[in-house]
Amino acid sequence: xxxxxxxxxxxxxxxxxxxxxxxxxxxxxxxxxxxxxxxxxxxxxxxxxxxxxxxxxxxxxxxxxxxxxxxxxxxxxxxxxxxxxxxxxxxxxxxxxxxxxxxxxxxxxxxxxxxxxxxxxxxxxxx
Length: 127
Known about the structure:
With 127 residues, the protein is mainly β. It is built from no helices and 11 strands. The protein has strands at residues 3-7, 10-13, 18-25, 32-39, 46-51, 58-60, 68-73, 78-83, 92-100, 116-117, 121-126. Strands 2, 4, 5, 6, 9, 10 and 11 form a 7-stranded mixed sheet that branches. A hairpin with a 6-residue loop joins strand 4 and strand 5 (46-51). The protein is globular and about 45 Å long. The chain starts with a strand and ends with a strand.
């Protein structure tokens, strides 16, 4: 059973930075695309960023483009989300997800396409 465990969330002031990590274990497939999503109170879960298996392709929601950076270390089965210039609107529970793929380049924005999810980590940005 694949398990994804997020870490790195916390409380930060507006303008600050956080780096989220998502460690995967129990994988039996050879390639996985990864994504980060978030859910703010009273809102639906939304796409934040995605990265291909080889790390060469990335995609971002317009709301975080230029502030957030997704990256991965396949040797450590870990994906990261570097978040800079945080605003109170970034307050949410952040989830990582992965999708089994047969390509090095696939990117996926829809949460329905992902196979496994972590439990989430809370990010709170104070004004």
